[in-house]
Automatic annotation (TrEMBL), chain A:
Keyword Transferase applies: yes
CDD domains cross-referenced by the UniProt entry: AdoMet_MTases
Gene that this polypeptide is encoded by: NDUFAF5
Pfam families: Methyltransf_23
InterPro entries named among the record's database cross-references: Malonyl-ACP_OMT (IPR050602), SAM-dependent_MTases_sf (IPR029063)
Protein's UniProt name: Arginine-hydroxylase NDUFAF5, mitochondrial
Source species, domain of life: Eukaryota
UniProtKB/TrEMBL annotation, chain B:
Cellular-component GO terms for this entry: mitochondrion
Entry-linked InterPro entries: NDUFAF8
GO BP annotation list: mitochondrial respiratory chain complex I assembly
Protein's recorded name: Uncharacterized protein
Species of origin: Hypsizygus marmoreus
Length: 349, 68
């Protein structure tokens, strides 16, 4: 009883110090600490990684590994085009070089405001590659409300950048605040199954060689949590769906190199700065050895015998969560009140 | 010219050498080790495939002409 009261009062104290985040049920140890949202990612290291990746070989290396983001931007655009509305301006949060903004067309959107924390990535591609007018803002995406005013944006989109945000509930609240009433939020982010093959291989290699595991792949948001998070942030008319992009690589080494060129290196706080070369070599051997099992889990064994890993390539899965939410407005359609139904469902079914 | 230079220097970084040797030069040793792990992957403990890795590691050290 006493404990419960202490927890409640400290939770209240925390709510006052944390402007944009509510207490997440999954991190009970944070209650009472009042230090702000739990820090998972080293944002500074991430910015340096992205800058370095975009600068490598004058941006050429970074451009060759655009395949995942371009594919996802394309699928995001399909969802965007389903929305029958014209926008004067769209804010692209964590835009990178503009994978999504490049696909915008003038008959639907007049202007895109690109926001990214990595200056090199933001300025990688010239303005001539965009059909719409663009404005680039170099700023930390985590502090959206310091960049734009509340109730100022018609639409906010984000293509594969939210997975590096420390305070996901907080950024969603900021996005909602920044939108005008009836404003659109459309985003794609990496889901929890992303790179599970690499995660498994590294864990097995570390356990067998060194006797323990350490974080190499970021913790990622579970699909089931996204609609709850959107709802908690105050969005209405939610649509959440998942999709996978699977890429085959010759071996683990090409995957690691491409991830690094994407600026997607490890930036978890408390990561080990090096991996022993024995562990890396072991992970590479395990990845190759275990790939048939990963493939078999997803397709039938018959298919595996037919086309399975014959070429010796390894699969890498990128799980993508697409989300659409709207800022509430009085003009929007709403569900009817409980008990107002006129037809008894028993009669229909 | 610079591209060629970059390509050759990329070939010789230690990590690239490790990548090359672990997937081609020592592919058979790697495969034996990989199979050993796959056979026990639901219950892996430290050094459970020690012998298999010793052979793989020896091959890598020989190919890399280094000791670690």
């Amino acid at each position: 009883m006493f404990l419960a009261r202490v927890a409640r009062s400290s939770a209240r104290g925390e709510a006052q110090t944390r402007a944009f985040a509510a207490i997440s049920s999954s991190t009970p140890s944070q209650i009472g600490s009042a230090v702000g949202p739990y820090q998972v990612f080293d944002r500074h290291a991430k910015r340096l990684q992205k800058d370095a990746a975009a600068a490598r070989d004058g941006g050429a290396r970074s451009a060759t590994v655009d395949y995942v983001r371009d594919e996802v931007a394309d699928r995001m655009m399909e969802r965007f085009l389903d929305i029958k509305r014209k926008f004067n301006s769209v804010l692209d949060l964590g835009s990178g070089p503009g994978h999504f903004s490049k696909l915008l067309e003038l008959d639907k959107t007049a202007k895109s405001i690109m926001v990214d924390s990595s200056e090199m990535t933001l300025n990688r591609d010239p303005d001539s590659e965009f059909e719409v007018k663009i404005e680039r803002i170099h700023a930390d995406e985590e502090n959206l409300l310091q960049i734009v005013k509340p109730n100022s944006q018609e639409a906010i989109v984000s293509c594969l950048s939210l997975h590096w945000v420390n305070d996901l509930p907080g950024i969603l609240v900021q996005i909602k605040e920044a939108l005008q009433p009836d404003g659109l939020f459309l985003a794609a982010m990496f889901g929890g199954d992303t790179l599970f093959e690499l995660r498994t291989s590294l864990q097995l290699a570390e356990v067998e060689r060194e006797g323990g595991v350490s974080p190499h792949i970021s913790p990622m948001t579970d699909t089931r949590d996204v609609s709850n998070l959107l709802g908690r942030a105050g969005f209405t008319l939610l649509t959440v769906d998942i999709d996978e992009v699977k890429v085959a690589y010759p071996s683990m080494w090409e995957l690691l190199e491409d991830l690094s060129d994407m600026g997607e290196g490890n930036a978890v706080i408390g990561r080990r700065s090096i991996i022993h070369r024995d562990t890396l070599a072991a992970a590479s051997a395990i990845y190759k050895g275990i790939s048939p099992i990963f493939i078999a889990k997803q397709i039938s064994y018959i298919l595996l015998e037919m086309h399975g890993n014959e070429d010796g390539s390894i699969p890498a899965t990128f799980q993508i969560i697409y989300m659409i939410g709207w800022k509430p407005a009085p003009t929007q359609p709403k569900p009817l009140d409980r008990g107002t139904g006129a037809v008894n469902l028993k009669e229909v079914l | 010219m610079t591209a060629l230079k970059a390509a050759t220097s990329q070939q010789t970084t230690p990590l690239r050498q490790l990548a090359l040797h672990s997937t081609s030069t020592c592919a058979s040793e790697a495969s034996v080790y990989g199979k050993c792990i796959v056979a026990t992957y639901t219950d892996v403990k430290k050094d459970i495939c020690k012998e298999e890795f010793a052979k793989f590691g020896e091959c890598l050290r020989k190919a890399m002409k280094r000791k670690w």
